[in-house]
Design brief:
Layout: H1 3-8, H2 12-24, H3 27-36, E1 44-50, H4 56-69, E2 74-79, H5 88-96, E3 106-111, H6 117-133, E4 138-144, H7 148-155, E5 159-164, H8 173-176, E6 185-188, H9 196-213, E7 226-228, H10 237-254, H11 256-285, H12 287-298, H13 304-313
Parallel strand pairs: 1-4, 1-5, 2-3, 2-4, 5-6, 6-7
Helix pairs in contact: 2-3, 2-6, 4-10, 6-7
The protein binds guanosine-5'-diphosphate and magnesium ion.
Magnesium ion binds at residues 56-57, 93, 142.
Length: 315
């Protein structure tokens, strides 16, 4: 039987199989995605991002447990381009997520680092949609907030949680990484460590500055809360769950839910179009011709824009 109907029936092996196909990016995955598309659009997609080691995985684990206690099913996608698939970080994630394993209401998947970051972003978006179609009420996406691609992955969520931890001195990683603008909820994890209150204050100040600088109407009605947690023992996690529920209610009542869905559809369309057009062009032109243009550009015989025009017009 085809994968899509099996996934809609709750077949977890079919789900795992399709995710592998998505990572390989071939026609079978696209066919299944097409069949699943009408069944998407129900899950609450929650991005969890922040610097490595802030406790994202531990927090995601606790959030998942909290959602399960409230009766919601949870899909988890862990994206970590900085660590290889078999690396230690991932092994750590596996161990930590062990208390969730065996629960049929939970599905956990770590994304492999294959190909480009752009490819990873595409694959992650597709996997989120597959989990949505499979009926998971909540999809948690953990990404390391270090680069634009990872930030883009987080941005496609309905609700984005930026995780910070009290660190060395006054350094607030989320500020340095430019994550403040995408945060719907800010969490200062490791509140058992010294400096947590200071970090929370720094984030509040940054938020206030951001609000003053933002143009009128920029999500003005939602003020991102700054919450403290100790993910290790679950302290403060209930408040994060409440904030998530409040943000969802806000998105729905303000019409932003539909707005974000549409923004994501546009992103998806443009990304897919870009990939497809580039693929077709490269296939038509051929590797040798591309290398030839590269040589000419490097020798300063021609500039990039002229080369692009020639490639597009003479293919
Ligand atoms: N002290 C303390 N350590 C924590 C807390 N949450 C996570 N950790 C530890 O911080 C380390 C990194 O956590 P992890 O969840 O893997 O962070 P990630 O890289 O952001 O996913 C691990 O050793 C965790 O046990 C916390 O609330 N307090
Ligand atoms: Mg992690």
């Amino acid at each position: 039987m085809e994968l899509a109907p099996r996934i809609l029936e709750g077949d977890r092996r079919a789900l795992a199989r399709l995710i592998s196909l998505i990572e390989d990016d071939g026609p079978p995955a696209r066919e299944a995605m097409a069949a699943l598309h009408p069944h998407t659009g129900r899950a609450h997609v929650i991005g969890v991002t922040g610097a490595p080691g802030t406790g994202k995985s531990t927090l995601v684990n606790e959030l998942a447990k909290g959602f399960r206690r409230r009766g919601a099913t949870v899909g988890i996608v862990a994206v970590d381009p900085t660590s290889p698939f078999t690396g230690g970080a991932l092994l750590g994630d596996r161990v930590r997520m062990r208390d969730l394993a065996g629960d049929p209401g939970i599905f956990i998947r770590s994304m492999a680092t294959r190909g480009s970051l752009g490819g990873l972003a595409r694959a992650t978006g597709d996997v989120v949609r597959v989990l949505d179609a499979a009926g998971f009420a909540v999809v948690l996406v953990e990404t390391v907030g270090v680069g634009q691609a990872e930030v883009d992955i987080a941005r496609t969520a309905h609700t984005t949680i930026v995780v910070e931890a009290p660190g060395l001195g006054d350094d607030v990683q989320a500020l340095k990484a430019g994550l403040m603008e995408i945060a719907d909820i800010l969490v200062v994890n490791k509140a058992d460590r010294p400096g947590a209150a200071q970090t929370a204050r720094a984030l509040e100040v940054a938020l206030e500055l951001g609000r003053n600088n933002a143009g009128p109407g920029k999500d003005a009605a939602w003020r991102p809360p700054v919450l403290k947690t100790i993910a290790l023992d679950g302290s403060g996690v209930a408040e994060v769950l409440e904030a998530i529920a409040a943000h969802r209610a806000y998105l729905e009542s303000s019409g932003l839910w539909a707005h974000r869905e549409r923004a994501r559809a546009r992103d998806d369309l443009l990304r897919a179009l870009e990939q497809e057009l580039l693929g077709r062009l490269l296939a038509g032109v051929g590797e040798a011709a591309i290398e030839d243009w590269v040589d000419r550009i490097a020798r300063r015989e021609v500039d990039v824009y002229t080369a692009v025009q020639a490639l597009i017009e003479n293919r």
